[in-house]
UniProtKB/TrEMBL annotation:
It comes from Paenibacillus gallinarum. Gene3D superfamilies: 3.30.420.40. This is Rhamnulokinase. Keywords: ATP-binding, Disulfide bond, Kinase, Nucleotide-binding, Rhamnose metabolism, Transferase. CDD domains: ASKHA_NBD_FGGY_RhaB-like (cd07771). Residues 253-442 form the Carbohydrate kinase FGGY C-terminal domain. InterPro entries: ATPase_NBD (IPR043129), Carb_kinase_FGGY (IPR000577), FGGY_C (IPR018485), FGGY_N (IPR018484), Rhamnulokinase (IPR013449). Residues 3-241 form the Carbohydrate kinase FGGY N-terminal domain. SUPFAM superfamilies: Actin-like ATPase domain. It comes from the Bacteria. Belongs to the FGGY kinase family.
Amino acid sequence: MSVLAFDLGASSGRAVLGLLHDSRMEIREVHRFSNNPVFAGEHMHWDILRILHEMKQGLLKTKQAGERVSSVGIDSWAVDFGILGKDGELLGNPYHYRDTQTNGVMEEVLNKIPAERIFQKTGIQFLPFNTIYQLAALKKRDSYLLREGAHLLMIPDLLRYFLTGEKQHEFTNATTTQLFNPVMNDWDRELIKQIGIPEEWFGPIVSPGTEVGMLRSEVTKELGIRPVPFIAVAEHDTGSAIAAVPATDGPFAYLSCGTWSLMGTEVKAPIINEQTLASNFTNEGGVGHTYRLLKNIMGLWIFQETIREWEREGHDVNYDKLLHLAEQAVPFQYFIDPDHSMFLPAGNMTTRIQEYCIKTNQRPPQTQGEIIRCILESLAMKYRYVYELTEQVSGQSFSGLHMVGGGIHNRLLCKWTASALGKPVYAGPVEASAIGNIIVQWINEGVFSSLTEARKAVKESFPVLTYEPENAEAWKEAYLGYVKYTNLAAYV
């Protein structure tokens, strides 16, 4: 029995087949494509029709491989959306969450609606690019979208609409908008009204594992393929990744590691109180009526953007060589807070790292090895900070950390994270988002009776590497310096 998962990330997308052999899972990539944002005039957009074209190529290549999949699911990044007009046509390319339109907007909204009120209603972390602030930015400049729009769809919902003609909102992605009320288990209409957005843009919400339409006849004719049902999986890619964490005992801590790092734990109900508000945690929907109590961390974005900067400058950049140079550099010399606002935009990352160090009374890193070591050590330290904060706000204790996602290819990051935590790191599976997408489809089809059973199959099917802490005392001492220079000590 095979199913097809479209796993769309902020830099690339893939079509991945899920196959089952006697309860052992196998995945096979049938198509991969780049997902590059496009600057048009003053704004940064997603090339949504290019993504749709590439997804069709994935469907076509699946047919050419001789596979007859029983269903299809889509997961992607969160917060971004498209707006349909009254005739069902897309009104403009979706904005990229790094677009400058939201600069200063979150602060303006919080002056109008107290942060405590928004958090009480939604339980979501305050990030300047959240859907609520993107919509407030449209309202602020009196965008034509507000006059002509009839329906809002998050990115996976929008692509699914293109392919099926059906419009539904999926639960895990809806919760990320900061417009969903987990107590009401529905859109918070009062909050939507306060932002000044039409309520009718927001329709019914479906749970992961719900069948949400068939491949439309226009697409089957175009590609020469048979109709296939689409399943609403955990359409936020982190929701899919956490579904695939091979943890089978007790409470567990996870880190979904990629361009963004998302660290937290799985809970049965959202935790909305003064402590989670003060710590800026978020409560995002998960599979099986669970919630992901987590905190967003900038992740490998800084690392990736630094490499892109050097490539643009004409340097010969070799990934393995960079990690070797970082490993050879003197440890614990430079620290940054990856979540500082100066690291959010693209470009000039090396200069910003150096400026941050100078502003915090540190000597700035100079060589490639020093800069990469600064980034990766700082990430490992920030992971410890959030790991301990997660234990505090959840009231749970964890024996180690499950790391999943493409970021675990970075062996130094996994190794240094274990050392910073002073606890083992279990790294795997790499393709967690695609696997989570696949297992939700199989739960829908009755292949697995529950998420617990599916996670056991993941554990038996994919390799997991264990990293043990090294030089624990040195890392413990260095952590005190990290929280000092990054001004995080008050929260320890």
